[in-house]
Amino acid sequence: MEQTTRLPLIGEKAPSFKAETTQGHINFPDDFKGKWVVFFSHPADFTPVCTTEFMTFAAMQPQFEALNCRLLGLSIDSTYSHIAWLRTIKEKIEYKGMKNIEVMFPVISDLTMDVSRAFGMLQPAASTTQAVRAVFIMDPEATVRAILYYPLSNGRNMEEILRLVKAMQLSDKHKVATPANWQPGDEVIVPPPGSCGIAKDRMEKPDPDVRCLDWFMCLKKCPK
Questions:
Q1: Sheet containing 36-41: which strands, arranged edge to edge?
Q2: Which helix (H) or strand (E) holds 135?
Q3: CA separation, residue 165 to residues 55, 124, 143 (Å)
Q4: Smallest Cα–Cα separation from 86: which of 59, 43, 46?
Q5: Residue 44: inside a domain, yes or no?
Q6: What is the per-residue pLDDT across 175-193, written as a single tens digit (0 to 9) for each?
Q7: pLDDT value, residue 132
Q8: Do the beta carbons of residue 220 and residue 190 sit within 8 Å?
Q9: Which comes out higher in pLDDT, residue 127 or 142?
Q10: What total of structural domains would you count in the chain?
Q11: Both 181 and 152 in a single domain?
Q12: Contacts of 144 (CB under 8 A, 6+ apart)
């Protein structure tokens, strides 16, 4: 009988696991305490879409680290395959002005597929032998905060993943929401009275920095 596992949902604790990676053995989430984590799977080493994704993630790694966020990759290939592929990327591949790119974040070797199953990264209708392009974003308490899935044929938008981390961190810190297509510096949404910890007397004591379009929709400048 085929083994199935329910993927972790938003608001739940991420499954714990131990694994071998290109950076040595890791114990998740213990080794990532106090950090945000972008954990993503890719279908296979030595494939073109995955190569562009890894180069882009590696080039943007300093931006993620500036947000106290770690990158963690996975495929069901071996560590030897990972290392050979990443070496090839560094030595031979140039893409969109990126060259000599060295992937410094750990990439999990999941030959048993145990980690992939725990996170719902294996979807038989898409492929019986490859992990789909899944992204799990976890906060410093190892709680799943966002889940993104992409098909095998289409690469992810790393700028969107970075934007989402920034938006969630802003929401956590200032108890605000972000509107569609929000970018850092744009106005943010003030939750309606009585929600998300907002005091019910807000309407009786209007904030001069808040502009309301109606009773349920108020915005203010982006907090610094």
A1: 24-28, 17-21, 107-109, 69-75, 36-41, 133-138, 144-150
A2: strand 133-138
A3: 19, 29, 13
A4: 46
A5: yes
A6: 999 999 999 999 999 987 6
A7: 82
A8: yes
A9: 142
A10: 2
A11: no
A12: 8, 9, 10, 11, 12, 13, 14, 136, 137, 138
Question: Does this model's pTM top 0.85?
Answer: yes
* Cα 183 from Cα 133, distance rounded (Å): 24
Which CATH number fits the domain that encloses residue 58?
A: 3.40.30.10
Contact 108, 115 (CB under 8 A): yes
Strands 107-109 and 36-41: unpaired
Catalytic residue among 50, 69, 196, 222: 50
Q: Which residues pair with 69 in a beta bridge?
A: 36
Cα–Cα distance for residue pair 173/116, rounded to 1 Å:
32
Specify the CATH number for the domain of residue 191.
3.30.1020.10
| Angle formed at CA 42 by CA 124 and CA 150, multiple of 5 degrees | 65
For the record, the structure tokens of 109 come out as 């070797």
Structure tokens at 102: 């060295």
Catalytic, 50? Answer yes
